[in-house]
């Protein structure tokens, strides 16, 4: 098919050179101008995300595993998938009382976990690389230790958000974190639980991805 | 008329006679317009971000061949296999090849308008491969055996009751419940089993970043993530215009697309994929393929005026605001892309012999131009296509296909009359005396009077009236 490649590129180049196009300069100021004061970001994120059914739990560095355990047992969640090699995963298991919720480590390839993942695991825990005030979005940065399906397949996705990792805009986040230099296999912005309005514009939650998104805010 | 050309006039008459359909569209479009307007409440913000997004798209087009090469280079470096297809046939055979190599029996698909353009599902089914649309709207349309009627909300033409009946007929053990939450959950159960079992996942691409070799997909449901994460092979399809230069060019596009499309600040998921599963990673497809499709786009690109068509980010807002689309609905166009963008894009891809009627399905009200987030001069392009439809030798395929000798004669008569004061006087006097006697069944006049009252000619011409007021002839 390299025939197609060459003929397409040759044609594009020839016709562009015959009629070059001078684009106007890209002025990013209208996006850069979107800024919120430190104390406004978290409430804004919360308001925007709650408007699309995201749930929030406030916690601290010391008590988040306990807060999570309490939430899961209150909601009757029997199993939580987690990333055992991450710092958060190590913190989670310390002193976990498995009586109410069983912890399942994501420690093997998807292929070996698929039936369990799709058919029985109820919740998944991931970290985030922060959140975006403009749109109320979490930044998820899956890694070898924290796989992509952890935040996708279980019915409940619990995301740890550090309250000091908040950005004004998507643009600011990607600039300050230097995304363009090293994009991982997958980056996600997540702004709520899965939803659809495909049936007569009626909003329904939990169509293919998680039915519930719970943000566990870790205050410094 | 071309024997197998879609007959827009007939299809729209049928649509107009269907009050259910008109009600469904009217309600949906009103809601979408209101929600969009609420998102752009600050004019300065709208103008600023819109100018930025337009510049991003124009810059991408100004360097299109170089950016496509760069995209290929960076995708390849990331482990994505890049394929080029000049035609939809080529794209289909590339897809079949990959599927055969993967020994695929079941394919799950996220929303992709390019694959609608390719009629890929029909090709796969003919090859004995089961293919399942997983976007809820697309799934509904596929079960119903029809086509999407809107590029963002494929099943917008159906109401809950109609969908409940459809599910009852087609899904085993479905209850007859007219409840969106129940129906959504039913689809979740059916499709989750398919995501788990699928051999290949397919998707479209909202923007491909040349700088990093990244494919960006936006969606609300999570089906796009399922299709691009769970099956062992992922094939993404994009029109060659979908490339942007830098990663920083993505935020302006993402800022406007969901707000314009559905009036939400952002979609639930923005999914950025830069490669297959790396060694040590536990999930993600082992192969990622990107199919870059031309299908007439390079010809659109060749013309400096028509080129603007390729700025489109497929938000669908022009449909929501189009007085014609809102009344006749998406199916009347019988095309993968309906509404204003369809009326300029489809004739350029498929030619004016087949699609010459489409640019006429427009009142030139300019509503689409005012809301287009990347400022495409849709109406100007529409005018250009109308001219090309009757004038051979232009840039668009099958130019002149709609030329009519009678129409050409009328227009040259009109031009001659307006060019000579004597001819003009004779003609206007004749019209003022005899015009009202002309039967409304005259050819050409009939097309107008079919659905409208024939206008009455005034008894005295404008010149007569002016003279009576003492204004002298020049
Ligand atoms: S033409 Fe403009 S308004 Fe219409 S779909 Fe494309 S970007 Fe959106």
Automatic annotation (TrEMBL), chain A:
Highest rank taxon of the organism: Bacteria
Key word Cell wall biogenesis/degradation present: no
InterPro entries assigned to the protein according to its UniProt record, in alphabetical order: FTHF_cligase-like_sf, LUD_dom, NagB/RpiA_transferase-like
Gene3D superfamilies: NagB/RpiA/CoA transferase-like
Positions of region (Disordered): 1-27
Domain (LUD) ranges: 45-218
Pfam families registered for this protein in UniProt: LUD_dom
The keyword 4Fe-4S appears for this protein: no
Keywords (A to Z) from UniProt: Plasmid
UniProt protein name: Lactate utilization protein
Organism ancestry: Bacteria, Pseudomonadati, Pseudomonadota, Alphaproteobacteria, Rhodospirillales
TrEMBL record, chain B:
Stored Pfam families: Fer4_8, LUD_dom, LutB_C
Keyword list, A-Z: 4Fe-4S, Electron transport, Iron, Iron-sulfur, Metal-binding, Plasmid, Repeat, Transport
Gene Ontology molecular function terms on file: 4 iron, 4 sulfur cluster binding; metal ion binding
GO BP: any one term: lactate metabolic process
Domain 4Fe-4S ferredoxin-type: 302-324, 353-382
Claim: DNA-binding is one of the keywords in the record: no
Matches recorded under PANTHER family: LACTATE UTILIZATION PROTEIN B
Record protein name field: Iron-sulfur cluster-binding protein
């Amino acid at each position: 098919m390299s025939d197609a490649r060459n003929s397409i590129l040759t044609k594009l180049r020839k016709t562009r050179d015959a009629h070059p196009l001078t684009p106007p300069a890209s002025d990013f100021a209208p996006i850069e101008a979107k800024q919120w004061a430190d104390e406004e970001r978290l409430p804004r994120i919360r308001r925007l995300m709650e408007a699309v059914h995201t749930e929030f739990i406030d916690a601290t560095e010391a008590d988040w595993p306990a807060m999570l355990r309490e939430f899961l047992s209150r909601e009757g969640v029997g199993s939580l998938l987690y990333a055992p090699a991450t710092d958060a995963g190590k913190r989670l298991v310390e002193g976990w009382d498995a009586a109410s919720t069983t912890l399942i480590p994501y420690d093997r390839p998807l292929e070996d976990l698929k039936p369990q993942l799709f058919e029985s695991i109820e919740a998944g825990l991931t970290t985030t690389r922060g959140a975006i005030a403009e749109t109320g979005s979490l930044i998820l940065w899956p890694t070898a230790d924290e796989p992509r399906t952890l935040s996708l397949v279980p019915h409940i996705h619990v995301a740890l958000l550090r309250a000091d990792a908040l950005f004004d805009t998507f643009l600011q986040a990607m600039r300050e974190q230097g995304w363009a230099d090293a994009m991982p296999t997958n980056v996600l912005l997540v702004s709520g639980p899965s939803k659809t309005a495909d049936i007569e514009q009626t909003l329904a939650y939990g169509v293919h991805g998680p039915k519930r998104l719970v943000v566990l805010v870790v205050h410094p | 008329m071309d024997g197998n050309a879609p007959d827009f006039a007939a299809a729209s008459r049928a649509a107009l006679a269907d009050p259910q359909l008109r009600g469904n569209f009217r309600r949906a479009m009103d809601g979408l317009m209101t929600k969009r307007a609420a998102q752009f409440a600050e004019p300065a913000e709208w103008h600023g971000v819109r100018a930025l997004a337009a510049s991003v798209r124009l810059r991408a087009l100004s360097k299109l061949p170089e950016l496509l090469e760069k995209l290929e280079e960076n995708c390849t470096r990331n482990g994505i296999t890049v394929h080029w297809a000049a035609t939809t046939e080529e794209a289909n055979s590339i897809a079949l090849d990959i599927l055969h190599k993967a020994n695929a029996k079941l394919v799950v698909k996220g929303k992709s308008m390019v694959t609608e353009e390719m009629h890929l599902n029909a090709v796969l089914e003919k090859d004995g491969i089961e293919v399942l649309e997983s976007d809820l709207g697309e799934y509904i349309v596929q079960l119903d055996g029809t086509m999407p009627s809107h590029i963002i909300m494929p099943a917008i033409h159906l109401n809950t009751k109609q969908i409940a009946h459809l599910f009852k007929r087609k899904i085993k053990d479905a209850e007859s419940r007219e409840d969106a939450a129940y129906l959504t959950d039913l689809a979740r159960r059916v499709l989750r089993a398919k995501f788990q079992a699928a051999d290949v996942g397919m998707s479209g691409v909202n923007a491909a970043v040349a700088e990093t070799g990244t494919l960006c997909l936006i969606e609300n449901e999570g089906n796009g993530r399922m299709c691009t994460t769970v099956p062992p092979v992922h094939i993404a399809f994009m029109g060659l215009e979908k490339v942007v230069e830098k990663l920083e060019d993505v935020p302006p596009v993402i800022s406007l697309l969901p707000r314009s499309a559905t009036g939400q600040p952002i979609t639930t998921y923005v999914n950025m994929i830069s490669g297959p599963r790396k060694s040590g990673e536990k999930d993600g497809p082992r192969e990622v393929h990107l199919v870059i499709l031309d299908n007439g786009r390079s010809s659109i690109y060749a013309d400096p005026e028509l080129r603007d068509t390729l700025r489109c980010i497929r938000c669908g807002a022009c449909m929501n605001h189009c007085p014609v689309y809102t009344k006749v609905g998406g199916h009347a166009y019988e095309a993968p892309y309906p509404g204003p963008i369809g009326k300029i894009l489809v004739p350029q891809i498929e030619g004016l012999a087949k699609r010459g009627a489409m640019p006429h399905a427009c009142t030139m009200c300019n509503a689409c131009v005012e809301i287009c987030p990347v400022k495409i001069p849709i109406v100007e392009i529409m005018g250009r296509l109308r001219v090309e439809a009757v004038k051979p030798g232009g840039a668009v395929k099958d130019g002149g296909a709609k030329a009519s000798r009678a129409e050409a004669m009328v227009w040259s008569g009109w031009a001659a009359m307006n060019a000579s004061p004597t001819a003009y006087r004779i003609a206007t006097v004749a019209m003022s005396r005899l015009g009202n006697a002309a039967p409304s069944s005259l050819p050409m006049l009939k097309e107008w009077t079919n659905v409208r009252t024939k206008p009455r000619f005034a008894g005295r011409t404008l010149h007569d009236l002016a003279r009576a007021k003492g204004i002298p002839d020049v």
